[in-house]
Each structure stands twice: as C-alpha cells, then as structure tokens.
Amino acid sequence: MAASEGRIKALMDFLVNVMGFKVSFVAKQPYLLGLSLEKRIVPRGLFVKNLISKGLLAKVSGLTTLFASSEKDSNNEAFSSYHNAM
Fold first, then answer.
1. Which residues form a coiled coil (predicted)?
2. Among candidates 33, 46, 42, 43, which has minimal Cα distance to 7?
3. For residues 35 and 63, is the Cβ–Cβ distance under 8 A?
C-alpha cells in the first residue's frame, strides 16, 4: 500500500505538531503509514495527551506501544484503569 503525500503530511503534522514527537523519531516508524489516522492514531494520541495533561501519565516513550497494539490489547485493564480515572 503506497501512502499518498497528503496522508504522510497529515500523519507527520499530527505526530509532530500535536503530539510533540521529533520528525526524526517519527520517520523511523514506517509501520505508522499502514495505520488509520482517523480510527487509530488520532483517538489514541489524544487520549494519551489527555492523560499526560491530567498528570496520570508522565510521557510516551515509544510509538509502537501506543499505536501498534491491537484493539483488544488497547482495551485491556491498563487502559481501563486510565479511563476510570478520567
């Protein structure tokens, strides 16, 4: 699946400008191009950003854990405890 220039720009814009990741860090994660920006990356990113702003999470060290885990994994007890704290 080839990624369009617009899709790459939208992905980089969100991860760099909204989430605060460095361009070089994001560029080393090619699997992100295969994930849905609207269904996976933006919702999970905003959820984690909200946790950080409320002091419930210190920082995000890796994109794989955040975005590559399956829907089943992301709904496990760890995420549920954050949902309940909010």
1. none
2. 33
3. no
Transcribe 27-50 into DSSP letters. HT-GGGGGS-IIIIIHHHHHHHHH
Q: Output the six-digit token pair for 29.
A: 């994660």
Task: Quickly count helices (H) and strands (E) in the chain.
Answer: 6, 0
pLDDT tens-digit readout, 28-64: 988 888 899 999 999 999 988 998 899 988 877 777 7
What domain range includes position 16? 5-85
Counting the structural domains of the chain, the total is 1
- Provide the CB-side half-sphere exposure for 15 (13 A, CA): 26
Band the pLDDT of 77: cuts 50, 70, 90: very low
